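Justification of resources, computational component.

The compute hours requested in this renewal are based largely on the per-chain cost of generating structure records like the one below. Each record pairs the submitted sequence with a full C-alpha cell output. That output is archived, and it is also reused by downstream analysis tasks.
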Amino acid sequence: MWMAWDRYRRTQRGQNIKIDFYTGMPTMFSVKKYSDALDTLRVQRGVGGHFQHNLVAVDSVNHRAVFKKSDGSSTDVDYTLLHVTPPMGPLDVLKQSPISDSAGWVQVDQTTLRHVNPDFGNIFALGDCSSLPTSKTAAAITAQAPVLTENLFSVMDTGEVSAATYDGYTSCPVGVHSHSCCYCPWLIYIYIYQTAINWLW
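The structure output for this chain reads:
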C-alpha cells in the first residue's frame, strides 16, 4: 500500500487516486507503539482506515469487494485495484497430526522449541509450522534457528536440552516510501523490544 502511494505521488497521479486500508484487525499493527506511528502516517497521507473489516467475497467482474464487519453486518466496496493478503493457517497434514495443537500448529515449548509432549521429544519446530505465539517472519526464524540447533544437538548428545532459549524476538520492516521503512522489532514474551520508532531513511 505504502509503495503504491509513493509511486502514485512521484508520478503526479496521487491527486487522482484514493487509497483505503481494510483490515480484520482493530488496529494498523499488532504492537501498539508501531500501530500508533503507522496510523499517524496513514492519516497524514490521507489513506482511509477501515478496521475490523474481514474480506469475505470478491466480485472481480464488477470490481466489488464484500467485507464483514465486527457487528456482523456486511459492506460492499467498489474498487479499481485490489491488493489482498489471504488468510493463512497451518497445513491440513499438520491439522490432522497428533503432534499438533487444536489449532493445527506443532505444539512446542515457547523457549526450547522442543515438543511439549515427552512422547514426541525428538520433534522440534520453528517458524510457520510451530505453535510459537509470535509473528511468523524471517526475523523470527533467524532468532529461533540457533536455539533449535543447540537444543537438538544437545538432546542427541545428552538427552536433555541445552541452556539456549528463544526470547520471542521478531520484527517486521514496513516499507513506507520508495527509500524508507519503519523497522518494527519486538519480543513477543515481553511485547516491546525498543523504546523508539526506527524510521530508516
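The chain has two domains: 2-87, 92-158. The chain has a mean pLDDT of 91.
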